[in-house]
Structures are given as structure tokens and as C-alpha cells.
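quick one, 160 residues, struct below
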Amino acid sequence: MQQPAEASDAAMDDAAFMRRALELAHSAQAVDDEVPVGAVLVREGQVIGEGRNRMISRNDPSAHAEIEALRDAGRRVGNYRLTGSTLYVTLEPCVMCAGALVHARVARVVYAATDPKTGAAGSVFDTLVSERHNHRIAVTAGVLAEEAGALLRDFFRSRR
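---
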């Protein structure tokens, strides 16, 4: 069964923006020797923020790729509320990042690889869709999951 054009266009956009997030993940590893996670924040088809893991290089436990992308977007847009935006990230967000995404009013999160230890977009916790929050975020999982998973596996394998 063929998908409607709108659905296939959205899937192509998701893959294209996730590829950019994967480029940022590679950069996190190559430039900063960090766990390879990258994030891209998009609104109305335009990139408004980008980030990659920088906890070690910045000596900042909050410098996850998602937080870096939110900070970048906040500076560019001039507002911490990022309504109508979609975050593309190569690894399922943790609780800290999920909370920040809820507070920023991000509309949607698209992630590649699941995080079975600390994932907060359905794997371990359901922070993004919790009815306890006054804002819920739509979640799409598994976009380019193989590529992101392989990148993370190779990184951790090289550390052992």
C-alpha cells in the first residue's frame, strides 16, 4: 500500500533532518571526543537550532545535544518558547532533556536510537507525553535508527 504524498514527504523531511543530526553526532565524537549524539531543531522547514553533546568539553552535565540545540534556537529566535518546532535527535532524550523540551513547548520529537537505560520518550519513562504536564509532545521513534545505533555501538566498543 502506498502512503499519501504528504506522509512520504514528511518521512523524507524526517530522514533529511536526521541526517543533519547524525552529522552533528559524528562531529561530537570527532571534534570533542564526546558520546556521538546530535540534535537539530526545525520550525516551518527551517533549522532554528543545532547541538551536539559537549558535556566533557564544556565541563557541563547539562550540555546534551538537545539542550545545546534549544539554547541555540533560543538565541536565534529570541524566545525560550519554541512552539511549532520539531527536534530531531540521534538518541532518545533523557529525563532532563525531555523536561526542557516540554518547558520549551516543542511540538514534536523525532529520534533515531532508543535508550533502554535512560530514555524518556517511551523506553523507560514517558515524560514527553505525561498527562501530568500541561504540554505534551508528539513522538516519532526509529528514524535512521540503524545508523545512529551503529555509531553509538562503535563509539562504546572503541572505549572498552
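Confidence is low (pLDDT under 50) at residues 1-5.
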